[in-house]
Amino acid sequence: MSIELWTEKYRPRTLDEVVDHEEVISRLKRFVEERNIPHLLFVGPAGVGKTTTILALAQDLYGPGYMNFILELNASDERGINVIREKVKFFARTAPMRSEVPFKILIMDEADSLTAAAQHALRRTMERYTKTCRFCLIGNYSENIIEPIQSRCSVFRFGHLSERDIRERIRYIANCEGVKLLESGLDAILEASRGDLRKAINILQTAAASKGGYVDEDVVFSVLGRVSPKEVRQMLLLSLEGRFLEAREALRRLLLEEGLAGEDILRQIYSQVLRLQIPESWKVRLSEMIGEIDYRLTQGARPEIQLGALLAKLALAGEEMRR
Ligand SMILES: Nc1ncnc2c1ncn2[C@@H]1O[C@H](COP(=O)(O)OP(=O)(O)O)[C@@H](O)[C@H]1O
Ligand SMILES: [Mg+2]
Q1: Which amino acid residue places its CA nearest to atom 17 of ligand 1?
Q2: pLDDT averaged over the chain?
Q3: Domain that includes residue 29, residue range
Q4: Which of 6, 140, 203, 232 falls between 20 and 30 A from 196, CA-CA?
């Protein structure tokens, strides 16, 4: 059984389906209508639709057989620049067969990782085969692309996707897949993906698979191997209320069932302590206790025992605080 990646399943097939980037898309659609495109340079952050957009353009331009007219290369391919150079020449020098469009499209991802020398060679190749091949170079920063290439390309800047658009897209995919996505789960996905829609979709898929299609904040944090602030907060409150055994059980779950690192749990305890509604002087005292445990953990002490001892101290502190 093969697992289909949702990033691929929900990759827009046409320019009209691409989310956001209205200006970029409308300029590109004009090229498609004219059945002629210049060399292109796409720049912008990861996971916002650069590769998707050029593939969609190719589908709009060539139709269903578009794969025969494009070649996708990655400039940081470990096989090296010479292999890439040969592939480029071999692909670019001949006109496409059986197509109304007289040129192919070569897509060069991570073009900004090429050395200046390699870019100059690439520029010469672009000029030489310009009749039979258009180049679409993709990168994160235009500053890393040599000026002679920039000036020969139409430059398209892809901005970050808006939070609203990412939310909408993630909700849409969750719906199509029958995933029960809670608002807290969506918030956690958004926070972790930081504007990268590919990452957001991947987190959604992994989270959905891990708990039978139910996705809340805790599921998201656990698939990310990150400590759930909510769970730690509950554990902290339990021990401050003097419910030590329950707190220790919560700790055991985080360490053993979720496999989280003691240091990560401790860090989250610390940030939750700072958020407690207690006098500053108590925050200082609790922080000192945490600092001590932190030191012991770095010395290689066992997390269950150290964190357990911390919970016990917190329980005593809670009792004192209530007096
Ligand atoms: N603007 C977008 N509209 C719709 N889906 C997108 C968009 N950007 C990214 N995606 C989703 O994220 C995946 C990765 O996008 P991709 O185009 O490869 O990003 P980039 O090339 O900018 O790193 C796509 O397969 C698609 O599912
Ligand atoms: Mg890409």
Answers
A1: 49
A2: 93
A3: 6-157
A4: 232
